[in-house]
Each structure stands twice: as C-alpha cells, then as structure tokens.
Design a protein that fits this description.
129 residues, 4 helices, five-stranded antiparallel sheet, Alpha-Beta Plaits, 31% helix, alpha+beta
Length: 129
C-alpha cells in the first residue's frame, strides 16, 4: 500500500526562485529500495515540490516502510547533492552530517498526511494512503 509523506523547509526570504530551480534540476534517485540481498523492499513512487513565500514542501509517495525508504534516499547521490545545495537557502540551520542531526531534522520537518482523497476510491474515515 502506498503512503504519502511531506517535509517542510523554512526558507530565507528572497531565496524562493533559487530553491524552485534546485527542485526542478535535481537528479532522479533510484526508485527501488533494496535490502542487503538485493530484494526490492520498497519503492519511491513519486515526488512533488511546492515553493511559496519563505517555505518549501516536498511530498513523496512511497511503498514500503518509511524508515527503509528514508535510509535509501539518504544514500542517493542526487538527494545528497540537492540537500547540500539547499542548505544555504534554509532559514534554520540543520545538521545533516550526523545521524542524530538528520533524525532531528526529519522529526521536526515531517508533516503528517491527514487526508488523501481520490475520485476513484470510496470515502473512508481516517487517513488514506
């Protein structure tokens, strides 16, 4: 089952156009998440990015356990380069070098999906994936 997740990035004033371009030109990571034996255990299905006044939000749709997908994404050169370039445009400094710092950033930046509706699915209560 696919799930949606999002990260909030507070931006420095005036950096919005540069950040838009960073998102547009960022590379494509490997979509399949594999375990140590090479078996596919998850997949990045899609990514969207939104940039507004002094803020950006990245939304991802994934299959598989989020911690495994997140660990996979953190090892992707394209993602690492994007995050490196983005750093100077963030309103709040963050530590993406240490595992503890990265975990803290993701805890603070994570947005909870509280609603996901599609025209081709029945209405249900609670969070839909």
């Amino acid at each position: 089952m696919a799930t949606w997740h999002a990260l909030f990035y507070p931006l420095k004033a005036g950096s919005e156009e540069v950040v838009k371009e960073l998102f547009r030109t960022s590379g494509r990571p490997q979509f399949d998440v594999r375990d140590a034996d090479g078996k596919v255990t998850g997949r990045l299905l899609g990514t969207m990015a939104f940039v507004g006044k002094e803020m950006a939000v990245r939304v991802i749709e994934v299959e598989g356990p989020l911690p495994m997908v997140a660990a996979h994404m953190s090892r992707q050169p394209e993602v690492r380069e994007f995050e490196r370039q983005l750093e100077q445009h963030l309103a709040r400094p963050r530590d993406m070098v240490t595992p503890e710092g990265a975990r803290q950033f993701f805890r603070e930046a994570a947005l909870e999906c509280v609603l996901s509706r599609r025209h081709d699915q029945p209405l249900t209560t609670g969070v839909a994936g």
